Amino acid sequence: MLIHKGVALGNDYLVIDAADLPWPLTPERCGAICDRHTGVGSDGILVIDPGRQFSLRIYNPDGGEAEKSGNGLRILAAWLYDRGLVRNDWFTVRLLRDSVRMRVEAERPDGSLDIRVEMGRASFAAADVGFAGTGEIIGRTVALEGGMEAGITTVSMANPHCVVFVDRLDSDDFRARAPRLCTHEAFANGTNVQFVTTYEPAALEIWIWERGVGETLASGSSACAAAAAAVRRGFLPAGRIEVRMRGGIADVEVGDAYAIRLRGPARSVFSARVPQSLVDAWGRL
After folding, report:
1. Are residues 137 and 245 in the same domain?
2. Rounded Cα–Cα distance for residues 125 and 155 (Å)
3. SS3 letters for the chain?
4. Which domain holds residue 197?
5. Can you give the C-alpha Rg of the chain in angstroms?
6. Are residues 146 and 220 both part of a single domain?
7. pTM above 0.90, yes or no
8. Domain check: are 104 and 190 in the same one?
9. CA 256 to CA 239: how far, in whole Å?
10. CA–CA separation, 14 and 43 (whole Å)
11. Which tens digits make up the pLDDT trace of 165-192?
12. How many domains does the chain have?
């Protein structure tokens, strides 16, 4: 089995051609492959079917499927570009719930690629993130375990996000509240969580607790959700917003009707063939 690894702003994903996958990806197999000590190690797995209009499925280390990943999509674009399957024209990738268009803008001096993704329209409706209730969830206070609470804005980028605006980012506060929000009973399928502070005229800093992963250095869809929420709350104007994450900086453009574009780097790291003995061991899980 041939596995490829890529990175985007500190997020790393494995890319596997669907035709090269010898068995279905179960939670046990995902966990074993993504384990950083006994497996290959990654934040998730991208399974691409190049023969079906670039059909993509995204798996978290816990085996759950993610509807969308901005960093994962850019890593996929780098994989496709390296193989000559795309160049500098727009191309479409089919996802679990929708499709996106992407384009490799340029090769960077450090060897990475500058990639733009049309991420779709942000929605603030409770139903679109599987949140109990109706209407839009804008700055609503929810109770958390341990007597805590949080003011949340829910955003769907075809995957669920819960944005919490804070005056300053604090590690203890983030690690206490973010995982509780991630698995909060009000979210039918869990949610990605962003703690966000804003900087005028057009910048954000965000910390991310990713569903099925935990604390993570960066997330493209989280950057998009945070930027959309900042505009919806009136904290920043629409247009280009610089989103600063622990893994690096992404540019998010919030357009008319909350159409979102994401731009940032990605690169391939290596390709390797997994020994058949290990493939067989994973197959027995």
Report:
1. yes
2. 7
3. CEEEEEEECCEEEEEEEHHHCCCCCCHHHHHHHHCCCCCCCCCCEEEEECCCCCEEEEECCCCCEECCCHHHHHHHHHHHHHCCCCCCCCEEEECCCCEEEEEEEEECCCCCEEEEEEEEECECEHHHHCECCCCECCCEEEECHHHCEEEEEEEECCCEEEEEECCCCCHHHHHHHHHHHHCCCCECCCCEEEEEEEECCCEEEEEEEECCCEEECCCHHHHHHHHHHHHHCCCCCCEEEEEEECCEEEEEEECHHHEEEEEEEEEEEEEEECCHHHHHHHHCC
4. 126-265
5. 18
6. yes
7. yes
8. no
9. 9
10. 8
11. 999 999 999 999 999 999 999 999 999 9
12. 2
Q: What is the CATH number of the domain that holds 191?
A: 3.10.310.10
**Whether residue 259 sits in one domain with residue 271:** no
Asked if 107 and 16 sit in the same domain, the reply is: yes
Among candidates 103, 69, 87, which has minimal Cα distance to 218? 69
Domain identity same for 150 and 195: yes
Say which amino acid occupies 136. E
The model's pLDDT over 220-250, given as tens digits with 9 standing for 90+, comes to: 999 999 999 999 999 999 999 999 999 999 9
For residues 273 and 167, membership in a common domain is answered with: no
Using alpha carbons, list the distances in angstroms from residue 62 to 35, 44, 156, 241: 10, 9, 21, 32
The answer on 141 and 201 residing in a single domain is yes
